[in-house]
Amino acid sequence: GKFMDLIHRGKPIPIFGDGTALRDFTFIDDIIQGIVRVIDRPRPFEIYNLGRGSTIPHSVLDLIKAIETSLGKKALTNFLPPQPGDVPATQADISKARSLLDYEPSFPLSEGIAANARWFLANIPKLFVAVSLSSSPSSNILSLSPLPDVLVNFPESISGQDSQPSAP
After folding, report:
1. What is the pLDDT of residues 64-121, one digit of tens each?
2. Strand runs (DSSP E) across 42-140, as ranges?
3. Radius of gyration of the chain (CA)
């Protein structure tokens, strides 16, 4: 999500370390498959690890390359020092979910990113209206972003206060 949005908008992506950290990136449909299987096959107090379970995890740079390919845009990168405590590689052990739930992730990184990119591009107008309330209780301003600085006052009936036009 975050990297896709930044690449699409031509903003730099923060990469902690050199980008070679390995991760077991998992497409949401595979996680949903696992959750549905847990619900359909209840076993009280069991804990499952859901993920891709790749035999060869992908690096952060692999993820960025897949997003670039799916969006047809080149990423701007901002390499930063590694974050304290970050590990060089993580991978999900899904053997228990495989054996007890017949869980089997089916989306490789490139397919999951491509599907996510199709959804992202189809929903950009909806994604650009991110609503956040001002932290000042007296202003009651609704801001719409990352559209240009558009400010809309809450009506008195909603905020319980007089609404006055506000300057950006």
Report:
1. 999 999 999 999 999 999 999 999 999 999 999 999 999 999 999 999 999 999 999 9
2. 58-59, 76-80, 129-133
3. 21
Classify the C-alpha dihedral 21-27-33-39 as positive or negative: positive
Quick check: 30 and 105 in contact, CB under 8 A?
yes
Query: What distance in Å separates the CA atoms of residue 61 and residue 18, rounded to the nearest whole number?
Result: 9
pLDDT for 142-161, tens place per residue? 444 443 333 233 233 333 33
Amino acid at 115: A
CA 32 – CA 34 distance, rounded (Å): 5
CB-CB neighbours of 147 under 10 Å: 11
DSSP 87: -
- Phi-psi bin for 121: left (phi > 0), alpha (psi -120 to 50), beta? alpha
Q: Spell out a b/e string for 65-84, using b for 16 or more CB atoms within 10 Å of the CB, else e.
A: bbbbebbeeebebeeeeeee
pLDDT value at residue 133:
36
